[in-house]
Design brief:
- The complex is a heterodimer.
- By secondary structure, chain A is mainly alpha-helical.
- Helices cover 75% and strands 1% of the residues of chain A.
- Chain A is built from 11 helices and 2 strands, in the order H-H-E-E-H-H-H-H-H-H-H-H-H.
- In chain B, 32% of the residues lie in helices and 25% in strands.
- In chain B, strand 5 and strand 6 form a beta hairpin.
- About 3% of the residues of chain B have low confidence.
- The chains are: A mainly alpha, B alpha/beta.
- The complex binds adenosine-5'-triphosphate and magnesium ion (MG).
Chain lengths: 289, 272
Amino acid sequence: MFEESALNARNKKIQLLWRTLFLVMTLLLILPVLVILGTLIAKGGSVISMEFLFTYPTDGMTAGGIFPALFGTVWLVSLALLISVPLGVAAAIYLSEYAGENWFSRLINLAIINLAGVPSIVHALFGVGAFVVFFGFGTSILAASLTLAIMTLPVVIVATKESLDAVPLAFREACWNMGATRWQTIRKVVLPNAISGILTGVILEVSRTTGETAPIMFTGAAFFLPFLPESVFDQTMAMSLHLFVVATQVPGVPDALPYGVALVLVSMVLIMNSISIGFRVYLRGQKKW
Amino acid sequence: MSDKPVNTNTSEAPENGEHQFAIDTQNLDLWYGTFQALFDVNLKIRQGMITSMIGPSGCGKSTYLRSVNRINERLGYVRINGNINVFGNNIYDPAVELVQIRKEIGMVFQRPNPLPASIRDNVLFGHRIHNKHMKTNKAEEEEIVENALRTVLLWDKVKDNLNRKATQLSLEEQQKLCIARLLPVKPKILLMDEPCSALDPKGTAAVEELIWELRGEYTILIVTHNMAQARRASEECIFMLMGKVMEHTATEDLFVTPAKKETADYIEGRFG
Ligand SMILES: Nc1ncnc2c1ncn2[C@@H]1O[C@H](COP(=O)(O)OP(=O)(O)OP(=O)(O)O)[C@@H](O)[C@H]1O
Ligand SMILES: [Mg+2]
């Protein structure tokens, strides 16, 4: 009575077909990543060394290291996050914990979604108009970081909002019913439970910001500077722009150099993504409800 | 049959001072948007007693409970007419501080909702938020935790690992903990909305026993779908139907000699 019927066999075959199809799609997805990494390592791996990371470019950027660019990127990204994370987290807390469902919060949510969809070159032009010219910061780290901050803001807000919304309402109700204020509830219960998600979102944002070229190109990043920036009002070199420059703008660059720069850039991003994923896994193991 | 609720308990003379009634509800109407959920509710809940509330699903039991500690207003579309006096003070007076209401009136939910923190922190949560500037020391906190957990008959089970996550306890233990964490701020009234409906029979019996222990010190208003529970674990009983109070009297009387036909039908399982 438990033998396989013809219909069972047919259904099984169909299910196998779909399963295989999905597997192939998945593998296709990984392929570009592997090819990119493979190419970078094969062609640029040879130039990577401590010296490459920590010395200045020489010979009209056709030789030497990438230190000022590396240093500049760390500067730009840190400052951008220093601005966008507090702002974004605060806005997200307001939107999901305080604001009710009304036309005002809907309008803000709409604005955030649209801000997230603005192309980075438009952010760049906005940055030039607002920070470089209007506020008079000139082309500087400050102007570039502010531009990056504006660009990352919607993503920080959305990631934070999602983590806050993932905290069950029952926890909040428990607090309110004991007479806790909104803020006491947020500080003692909601934030501690949402912090892992928020941090993950922020780290992912770091990796995305690291690779951005357009927003910093006109607002604060320089082709070549033989010295490190001393304040936020100086210009700086940056990894993404440096890659663009050595790959397309400078004649006589040895083939391996751009690949080497790209490899460092991609590694930075991958390392940060891995940290973020590891972090998420760790914290998910920690919390149980 | 008249539409007036039968209220046999209100005619008795006051026995113990002016606040014989912990909750005195006067002509309470409540709307969710345009839908009226409570109709002219008049209820006097006796102090220090366990009063149970029964009635078919959707008759407004939870709605009434949630108006007594004013959490319904969180929904922007709730509108209320009438008064609820708690120990003689109208809680819908604009001058009333919500936090003080919540302190005096604790609530226990259908699903146990311990916070995702240690057992100790759960018990101390309310105490800590209400005592910001009165520094309490470690020893004092330990005493508070022990007292609260002893009261809910949980101390012996958890005293050795108070740092354990509350969310890992069994449902019965979680529900007891949810009651325990209300006690350190010394509420006078406990509202319980089907506190046993997520528990197995053994857990139900245990929590019921605990609720019975708490009477006298606390005024307890408990919603239940379990007729047997209402009968054995409450002193007065309220029967509600379609947003109206049908009958409110001593539990034994309500079950043995219901004054209204609807009550009789309901307790005999003819509808609901
Ligand atoms: N948030 C709400 N918004 C709109 N209507 C609601 C809301 N909560 C309850 N109601 C309605 O009010 C009426 C009373 O609901 P309530 O939850 O008080 O009933 P209940 O007696 O507690 O029922 P149950 O036994 O199922 O818990 C129901 O008709 C319900 O649909
Ligand atoms: Mg209910």
